[in-house]
Each structure stands twice: as C-alpha cells, then as structure tokens.
Description:
Elements: H1 2-12, H2 31-42, H3 66-73, H4 81-94, H5 96-105
Helix pairs in contact: 2-4
Amino acid sequence: xxxxxxxxxxxxxxxxxxxxxxxxxxxxxxxxxxxxxxxxxxxxxxxxxxxxxxxxxxxxxxxxxxxxxxxxxxxxxxxxxxxxxxxxxxxxxxxxxxxxxxxxxx
Length: 106
C-alpha cells in the first residue's frame, strides 16, 4: 500500500522530473532479516542456510532517503516491513486461485 501511494503521489506531483524518490522508510533491513520474517510467517519446515554463498564484495547497503521523499511528495510510509510482508502472505493465502493460475503460466 505504501509503494502504491508513493507511486501515485509521485506521478501527480509537478516538478519531479529527474528527481529521485525513494519509497522506503529509511531503515536498513538485511536480506537475512527479510527472509527470516517470511520464513516465520509462512512457517517453512526448512530454514535458510545463510553464509552458504559468500557475500558480494564491495556491495554497499542501500537505504531509502525517507526524509527526501517526504520533502518531495509529502508522504511517509505507514507500514513496517513485517506488516507489509504479513499482509502479502495473508493475501496469497486468501487468494489461492491467483497463485495457482500464475504457476500454470510459468
């Protein structure tokens, strides 16, 4: 919901040509943290094996500039990562027909 609202506001705000709009809260989240949240919410029997592949060298953390986005479009995200992933998991659980039709088309 935050992403959609940010995109809509960015699309209708005059004077944003060439501006960078980061649609995030400005808090760094590791892939490990995101995967652990997903694993917890979908209750997978197998846990991820972090460290099986070495980290990529010279990769810098990417953190959204939430304050810059607020200055540009006047919007702050309202959902935490956990809330957003939880809502997404719940949506897929209540719409199995979507997931099944997508699997058939792959």
